[in-house]
Design a protein that fits this description.
The protein is mostly helical and 533 residues long. It has 2 domains: 417 residues, Growth Hormone, Chain: A; 54 residues. Helices cover 71% and strands 0% of the residues. The protein has 20 helices and no strands. Helix 4 packs antiparallel against helix 5, helix 12 runs antiparallel to helix 20 and helix 18 runs antiparallel to helix 20.
């Protein structure tokens, strides 16, 4: 809690170091609550990071085809997204535990500085390998941007009052996503794709300066003997390593299979088998570790938490399968420039923060958490299903309207799932449970991108006619090469792409359908749960 100023008339906007701003302890029982001193400045700092998280996600999704084509690596374009998602997934839950042990301030700055460094490295990349490494570094920081915002607000705001502020957080993320989708293509077409990463650097610097002044914590009390070694023994390092290895080897197998090598190749089978072994080892570690696990299995006991997390992982798969495939549809099937493709995503993307606002209002006034999850998942299914029917020469309104339900549903279901899960636990477990929600959702995003990318590339590999044998590699490695093909050859190539994209949209609809079915078994208890009630 923020310490309220005891003297009348003494409420400076930015507190000094002598007056600690934030106490990492459970929110006390209060009948009413009002924002504490310096609250708006804190929100500005953490919401700026949330904005960057949304911006980075969509600006990469809308420009990855162009970036990978410049490096002649369009057939492995999914790595630009998944290299970020893998490290983000592994580190998201660590931020929750690190912030409990080492303090919110340290973790906030670690996430922001690492994200800033990764963006700067991406802008300076001269080959696709270094670019992917920097994307992975960005993911280490990016994994903490949303997580730390949620955790800091859980310290500041009573659970029953948190619905609208979570909606604001989702709105900040959605606004960032809108800006990334809208301006990404224009940036690529005008000043170059490197500026997609460079424009994030000054925002991160402003966040660092603002956070330095407004995020003030009291000295950390000794925990378990106060020895640093003791603290590190509480961190699930083994689980983190196994999770990264599992996701990385799985992605290698999916990238190679049917793309560079046949599915029967030993070099495809080995990484896929290894990923299963690593995942089994990860689950074993989580069940037996003496450290605090990344995914506490005790939180996944019972129909309610299991069904919530099944919906969670499938929502992540559906959202990123949709997001990853849609720009490819506009740029390849409709032959649009990145600028125009990004512009198409702008207005529909407004539905995501609108959905978050709707969810915030419903949660604050009526609770209805499980109903929000069901409504959001259903809308995502409808939207992902509709886009499978988009064609080359459809009515213009369809390219606009069919995208809206999925974006609206995403804005509703994300906070719905988070608070449905949090409502099952006491306040002391909210940092870990929030991290668990983000981790499992991120696992879904990795799988969603990897699976749909494999679908598209396998379709291209098997579907391009033999007459194009001399051009196949060029087409698969560079999307822009399609624009240079003769008209009689270009159309068959676009049709093959279209078939692969349709299959990817269908896969995303299946993911959303599973999430909808799972949501029927969730049982949200409303925002009255917790020590503040």
């Amino acid at each position: 809690m923020i310490e309220q100023d005891q003297e009348a008339g003494m409420t400076p906007a930015i507190p000094n170091e002598e007056q600690p701003l934030l106490q990492p302890q459970p929110t006390p029982v209060v009948a009413t609550w009002s924002p504490p001193r310096g609250f708006l400045w804190i929100q500005l700092a953490i919401m700026s990071n949330v904005f960057l998280a949304g911006f980075d996600g969509t600006i990469t999704a809308s420009t990855y085809a162009v970036i990978s084509s410049e490096f002649n690596a369009a057939n492995t374009a999914s790595w630009l997204t998944t290299s970020y998602l893998i490290t983000s997934t592994a580190f998201q839950p660590l931020y929750g535990r690190f912030s409990d042990l080492l303090g919110r301030r340290a973790c906030f700055f670690t996430a922001t500085i690492t994200f800033f460094s990764g963006c700067l490295g991406c802008a300076m990349a001269r080959d696709v390998v270094f670019l992917n490494i920097m994307r992975a570094l960005t993911g280490i920081g990016g994994g903490g941007l949303m997580t730390m915002a949620t955790i800091i607000n859980s310290d500041l705001i009573p659970f029953r009052n948190r619905g609208m502020y979570q909606a604001v957080q989702n709105g900040a993320y959605g606004f960032g996503a809108i800006c990334g989708a809208s301006f990404g293509g224009a940036i690529v077409d005008t000043i170059g794709w490197r500026w997609c990463f460079l424009v994030q650097v000054p925002v991160s610097l402003i966040v660092l300066v603002l956070g330095h002044f407004v995020l003030r914590f009291p000295p950390k009390e000794n925990i378990e003997g106060s020895e640093q070694k003791g603290l590190w023994h509480q961190i699930d390092v083994s689980g983190s390593i196994l999770l990264v290895l599992a996701l990385s080897t799985q992605l290698i197998g999916l990238s190679l299979g049917g793309n560079e090598l046949p599915w029967t190749s030993i070099w495809v089978i080995l990484p896929l088998v290894a990923s299963i072994v690593f995942l089994a080892g990860f689950i074993t570690i989580e069940a037996n570790t003496k450290a605090v696990p990344l995914i506490p299995l005790k939180m996944l006991r019972g129909l309610h938490p299991v069904s919530t997390q099944i919906a969670n992982v499938c929502v992540g798969m559906a959202a990123y399968a949709f997001l990853f495939t849609l720009p490819l549809f506009f740029q390849v099937i409709l032959m649009e420039t990145p600028t125009k493709a990004g512009a198409r995503l702008a207005i529909p993307s407004l539905m995501t923060p609108l959905g978050g606002l709707i969810a915030g209002i419903v949660m604050s006034r009526w609770g209805k958490l499980a109903q929000l999850v069901r409504a959001g998942a259903t809308l995502m299914f409808i939207g992902n299903f509709l886009v499978t029917f988009l064609g080359f020469d459809d009515s213009g309104w369809k390219y606009f309207a069919y995208i809206i339900p999925a974006n609206l549903g995403q804005g509703i279901v994300y906070p719905g799932i988070l608070f449905t899960f949090l409502s099952a636990f006491d306040h002391n477990d909210h940092a870990v449970s929030a991290s668990t929600v983000y981790l499992i959702r991120s696992l879904g995003t990795v799988w969603g991108v990897a699976i749909t990318s494999a679908i598209v590339q396998n379709t291209l590999y098997s579907g391009l006619p033999e007459a194009l044998s001399g051009l196949i590699d060029e087409i698969r490695h560079s999307v822009s090469a399609i624009h240079d093909l003769p008209a009689d050859i270009q159309m068959p190539v676009r049709m093959v792409y279209y078939h692969g994209i349709q299959l990817s949209f269908a896969a995303s609809a299946v993911f959303a359908l599973i999430a909808t079915i799972a949501s029927l078994f969730t049982r949200g208890k409303g925002l009255e749960r917790g020590s503040e009630a």
